[in-house]
Design brief:
single chain, Molybdenum Cofactor Biosythetic Enzyme, Chain A, five-stranded mixed β-sheet, 43% helix, alpha/beta, 3 domains
């Protein structure tokens, strides 16, 4: 099935509201085998809505809209699409009485008359029940089998209705040709997109029956593999084989799948080793600590940290020698190492992380340009330090620095765990 999606609302066009509905619907529809071939956004104009839906129906014969089903004067979806199908709007009195009773039950008193527009249903329409709000969904279909499903724009309501009512309707439309579109994602970090393609070699363009997309972002480069128009079992098999092949190629650059978070991965490694973490942050201003403590259960691992923005805090609270700062500068490998070791000692943790850099937009020099960040990780006295230069604005540089710090921790902890396992095995063999 080929389908078009139209999201409706001036707030979407003006940029005040991010269109999360479209992304959600695209994922849900793909999972049941629907090929979303076009997405469009229009404002709250009856003429624009009618034109967009009419054009989409002419192309694919199947359209889903979100938004514009509320009770106010700018909600024009219902009447606009009814006009496309040449249907008149008629009141559903039983639904109106149910809505009135619901308002009173919730202590809101008498329902405003403006809400009556929400029970005006195009003649011959199929109503999609909304258990999450007051605006029902509506499906209109013509004699040629062309159809349009209208959903509310409120994300909570829309998402609930997709599972409750829309997907069952779409699956019935699909009939016996129920093929799927499925994707999985391998998450990588600390490697550029072009280098990653080089590492992948013959897999860089995808595999038989599996397409490959590169999705660069602040976390790194996600590798998205997708299969289309196959049965569910075949889709899972093809994706599993593709993910295994990609992992074998990218090795240590991969840290997780789908929505895995690197901070959560690091915390799991710490828990597995019984280690605690302390952070000392200058240019990142507590962002690393925030990312770690955003993960549920992080209190079992994170002991605390210091935002050592000034040199005085670096020396007084972390024990960084003044002469070290004077000789090498606050942004240096030596100071980052001293910050990591100081955090580990002062807070009382097996792991200490130190970050110091130039996040910009000013403050850089020819020797130490904007984007230079020194990161040090001290695990029980074993120290590793790096001084990468990140691109982007201040926010991006700070975030990328924390991602690099987390990846350094991940690799050191993984090496430590592997060494411990090898030692146990060696002892057992001996």
């Amino acid at each position: 099935m080929r389908l078009e999606l139209i999201t409706i609302g001036d707030e979407l066009l003006l940029g005040y509201t991010i269109d999360t509905n479209a992304a959600f619907l695209a994922r849900e529809l793909a999972a049941v085998g629907v090929s979303l071939v076009r997405r469009a956004t229009v404002g709250d104009s009856a003429g624009d809505i009618e034109a967009a839906v009419r054009d989409a129906l002419d192309r694919t014969g199947a359209v889903i809209t979100t938004g514009g089903l509320g009770p106010t004067s700018d909600d024009m979806t219902r009447q606009s699409i009814a006009a496309v199908f040449a249907r008149e709007l008629v009141p559903d009195e039983s639904r109106w009485e149910t809505l009135r009773a619901l308002w009173k039950e919730r202590g809101r008193g008498e329902i405003p008359v403006t809400n009556r527009s929400q029970v005006m249903i195009p003649r011959g329409a199929h109503v999609l029940e909304n258990r999450h709000g007051t605006a029902p969904g509506i499906v209109l279909e013509d004699d040629d089998g062309r159809w349009c499903a209208m959903l509310p724009g409120v994300p909570r309501e829309m998402r609930g209705m997709v599972g409750d009512a829309l997907l069952p309707y779409v699956i019935r439309k699909l009939g016996d040709t129920h093929h799927v579109v499925r994707s999985r994602t391998l998450r990588t970090t600390s490697i550029a997109e072009s280098k990653l393609a080089e590492v992948l070699g013959p897999l860089a363009g995808g595999m038989d029956g599996v397409s490959l997309a590169y999705l660069p972002g602040q976390d790194g480069v996600d590798l998205r593999v997708t299969v289309r128009d196959v049965g569910a079992a075949d889709a899972e098999r093809l994706l599993s084989e593709a993910m295994t092949a990609l992992r074998d190629r990218v090795g240590r650059y991969a840290y997780g799948e789908d929505r895995d978070d690197l901070a959560a991965t690091v915390l799991d490694l710490c828990k597995g080793s019984g280690l605690h973490v302390a952070v000392a942050e200058s240019c990142t201003g507590g962002l690393l600590g925030a990312r770690l403590t955003a993960i549920p259960g992080s209190s079992a691992v994170v002991n605390g940290g210091v935002i050592a923005y000034s040199n005085a805090v670096k020396t007084d609270m972390l024990g960084v020698p003044t002469e070290l700062i004077e000789r090498h500068g606050a942004v240096s490998e030596q100071v980052a190492v001293a910050m990591a070791s100081g955090a580990r000692a002062r807070v009382g943790s097996a792991i200490g992380v130190g970050i110091t850099g130039v996040a910009g937009p000013d403050g850089g020099t020819a020797e130490k340009p904007v984007g230079l960040v020194w990161i040090a990780v001290d695990v029980d006295g074993t120290v590793q330090a790096r001084g990468p230069r990140f691109i982007g604005d201040r926010t991006e540089i700070r975030y990328r620095a924390t991602q690099a710090a987390l990846d350094m921790m991940r690799r050191l902890l993984a090496d430590r765990a592997a060494a411990a396992t090898a030692g146990v095995q060696g002892t057992a063999v001996a």
